[in-house]
User: Fold these one by one.
Assistant:
Number 1:
Amino acid sequence: MSEEKPNPFKVVLKQLDIAAEKLNLDPGIHEILKQPKRALIVSVSIRMDNGNIRSFTGYRVQYHDARGPYKGGTRYHPDVTLDEVKALAALMTWKCAVVDIPYGGAKGGIACNPKEMSLVELERLTRRYTSMILDLIGPYRDIPASDVGTNPQIMAWITDTYSQFRGYSVPEIATGKPLIIGGSEGRADAPSRGVVLCTKEMVSKIGKRFKDMTVAVQGYGNVGASAAILLKKEGCKIIAVSDSRGGIYNPNGIDPIKVLKHKEKSGSVIGFEECKGITNEELLELECDILVPAALENQITKANADKIKAKIITEAANAPTTPEADEILSKKGIIVIPDILANAGGVLASYFEWLQNLHREHWSEEEFIKKLEYKMLEAFDDVYETSEKNEVDMRTAALMLGVGRVAEAIETLGLWP
Ligand code: NAD
């Protein structure tokens, strides 16, 4: 991988410029979309289990809300920065528009290492952070969700803290909650279900058979592990997976459920039976049909794009590919199904959970999956048609759709005062 680490917000701005040019976007609207509407930085101080006080920097960035209340996940990771959160908030804004749900885009995060913190420390951190962003969030204002390093329990603490301040139960304040407090059936697998659907659609568009396709998955967390399991169920052969410590490879196929059990026991995919150990760099460059980056940003850059051999890249992660890498991949004829389409199953699931909470309903898993598949396929078709019509790649098409819909909403609302 490259030594340079591209600034994630600059990457997103470059993508915005590409879409703006293709759309012939009004320069004033383009100007509006270059910055978030609001960004809050908080210093979250908590007492650690050893009695010491530590302060962690937290963020909540609200990018744009022309299409509806702000919506976006909350990331707990040591590398979280304001520019990363701004980038992810912008992507959420385009993504909600691509799948055509009535939300704007936001993102939150805390620079911390949740793996090194006790449950009690994480609870204190989450509750204090929630109290410090309280005036910005709300079920009709800005609805947090989970992301890298956060989970349903953390969403439960956000929900409880917000409800305590309001004085009554507000389950619709956060999504990705445990089932018992208003979480949705089917939520856990929703992002990966979308990843699989988009990949399958693309494989059929290029006239190939999905069954027996070889797959490499980078990142074996919530999304990556679930994607590997669902792809195997569809008949694909998982030949390599990885996590932050490294990867494993077996050209004859790997059982993703067994790998997950191994990871739960040992903390990593490394050391799994009958597999060769490989680095994350090697995984990205493997000979395979489908590559699924499901870890973090900036994994496919100008330094390694030329070495990628997959035929289709389905971006389960947000922003894994830089614009320079996109150009190289496009020249090589590699199809990229972009993040703002491929992983939109996550925000669709959040939208469905929010709707159920607002209406005090509980949908069956079957109903949830049916609605998810319908919206994902509709979005895939919209992006594919835009790509064919304008003779652009899938990312440019998705950006044209997402940015175009947000721009139209801003124009329609007008600029006050
Ligand atoms: P997670 O924390 O559950 O998993 C991340 C995985 O990536 C872990 O296995 C970690 O070890 C691995 N990892 C970290 N750095 C790595 C590296 N350099 N190389 C290889 N592996 C590495 O997070 P998640 O919720 O699965 O999210 C993964 C990606 O999917 C993120 O980009 C996130 O924004 C995106 N996403 C998540 C959701 C969701 O609902 N969870 C929805 C849409 C998109």
Note: The chain has a mean pLDDT of 97.
Number 2:
Amino acid sequence: MPLGEFDLIERFFSRAAGRPDVLLGVGDDAALLAVPAGCALVAATDTLVEGRHFLPDAPPDSVGHQALAVNLSDLAAMGAEPAWVLLSLSLPGADPVWLEPFAAGLYALAGRHGVALVGGDTVHGPLVVTVTALGFVEPELALRRDGARPGDLLYVSGWPGEAAAGLEQLRAGACPTDDPLVRRCRYAEPRVALGRALRGRASAAMDVSDGLLGDLAKLCASSGVGAVIDLERLPVSGELARRHPAGECERLVLKGGDDYELLFTLPQSAAAELESIASTELPLHCIGRIEADRGVRCRRDGLPVSVAIAGYDHFA
Ligand code: ADP
Ligand code: MG
């Protein structure tokens, strides 16, 4: 039996907020949220459309995870503390078999980051999921794209390229759902703790959603600088290296999107402190340097190499 809007919200999206700063959550006309004194509200929103951002047969819990993960990643890239989210759902039908695991995937990730679902909207239409994430940060500590300076070192976290490899595999059909590369594109981990640790250290930061090269070009443009990537320093995970030839790995790392790793710059004086932040679960790789000359350049063993910048464009 199809559920009405009210029943659906009540059944799937009304868990207790569990945060004292939620003065009023789901159920009223709007949520009442208390932002800590001295902090700025940080707001981000991202929409997932079935067939474009996730495949029609994607496990519903992965859609719930991904819808929240991409937003938490944006807050992480600002160095913000994630606190609250709103969920706007357009659903072709109120199917509990889909909604139950969808909500479970979303709440599981929210729970791990102490984030509360405080409201949203539910309408009938094609399957589209929009999450708005809210968090806070002291404005002077926020990580922005426009602070990179010549001489800064350029870093990327984790293992960029794995999600794109997983996505290509899914598109090619037939692959086990527990494949680690497929999991990387379906269950990307937003780098919230890293974003927090980079506050007051990184000169600029952003999350890699459209591909390392293209996103670096955006960071450089915002900062009015350029960058050099040393190709031999690009991180290639063991999994990627086992499954793809070296040239293919390089393409995936440079141009693959959807990893939600953080790309950031550090003044050289802050580089030593970085050791205290890096961990075996989340290694941090220095892949190049910021220069005054605009544009993004690649080198291999010190020699210039031309690599065209084109990443994933979900609007194209
Ligand atoms: P209104 O008509 O006043 O906009 P709605 O009937 O759309 O209110 O929603 C009722 C309450 O349920 C509101 O508090 C709203 O934030 C919440 N809500 C609606 N859809 C969702 C959803 N998908 N997830 C979480 N909360 C929701
Ligand atoms: Mg409404």
Note: Residues 60-77 form the longest helix (18 residues).
